[in-house]
Specification:
By secondary structure, the protein is mainly alpha-helical. The protein has two domains: 3-35 and 151-200, Endonuclease Iii, domain 2; 40-145, Hypothetical protein, domain 2 (Endonuclease III, domain 1), CATH 1.10.340. Helix content is 59%, strand content 0%. It contains twelve helices and no strands. The protein has helices at residues 3-16, 18-27, 40-50, 55-68, 75-80, 83-88, 93-107, 121-128, 136-145, 158-167, 176-183, 190-200. α2 crosses α12 (190-200) and α10 packs across α12 (190-200). The two termini are 27 Å apart. 35% of the residues are buried.
């Protein structure tokens, strides 16, 4: 998305949804582009690290993970270190398995990262969810924060559910079906809407299960 795209998104969302209009007035320019990961492997590794953790805990582990490799890691570097080293930086045993499977699939060509940008959102989700530990939520975060896709709605994200409950003054968090219905007004910029909802909680994406 370009600066022009963001301006268009803000105008459309403000016109269609007064709640989002108020959030945009409060939080200013959308910061979605500021959170982009340039390297697809780094983006996926970060997504695995972040699963079911607070943003603060995930950031701490990510810093330790990077320090293990003196900078952003490559699949080959991660494959070369021991399980014990990965657990020592804070990865659970399950996440070590996930990271191993990710590296293996990249190495043998089963997950060709270089072609993902040319694929549709759903095809990217199908490709990524073949990796152990990468479910739909993780694939959606990749679409938003690596491929910069503008119209992603992660209905399994705890932050989005809580933000909608708060912003729209609901008695309880919306069901996925209700969130999808609400999000119809945000098309084709649901990713931008989600950024403002996260911002309203001063929070980062957190999955409810993936």
């Amino acid at each position: 998305m370009t600066a022009t795209d963001y301006s268009r998104a803000r105008r459309l969302l403000a016109r269609r949804d007064p709640v989002l209009r108020d959030l945009m007035r409060r939080y200013g320019a959308c910061g979605l582009a500021d959170s982009q990961h340039a390297d697809p492997f780094v983006a996926l590794a970060r997504a695995i690290i972040s699963q079911q953790l607070s943003s603060k805990a995930a950031a701490t582990i990510a810093r330790r993970f990077d320090a293990l490799f003196a900078g952003p890691a490559t699949p080959g570097q991660v494959a070369a270190v021991s399980d014990e080293q990965l657990r020592a930086v804070g990865l659970s045993s399950q996440k070590v398995i996930y990271m191993r499977d990710l590296c293996r699939r990249i190495a043998d060509g089963a997950l060709p990262l270089h072609v993902l940008d040319a694929m549709s959102d759903e095809d990217v989700i199908v490709a990524l969810t073949q990796v152990k530990g990468i479910g739909r939520w993780t694939a959606e975060m990749f679409l938003m924060f690596r491929l910069h896709r503008p119209d992603v709605l992660p209905v399994g994200d705890l932050g989005i559910l809580n933000a909608v409950k708060k912003a729209y003054r609901l008695r309880k968090p919306p069901t996925p079906a209700r969130l999808v219905r609400l999000g119809e007004a945000w098309r084709p910029y649901r990713s931008v809407a989600c950024w403002y909802l996260w911002a309203s909680l001063d929070n980062a994406p957190v999955s409810t299960g993936d």
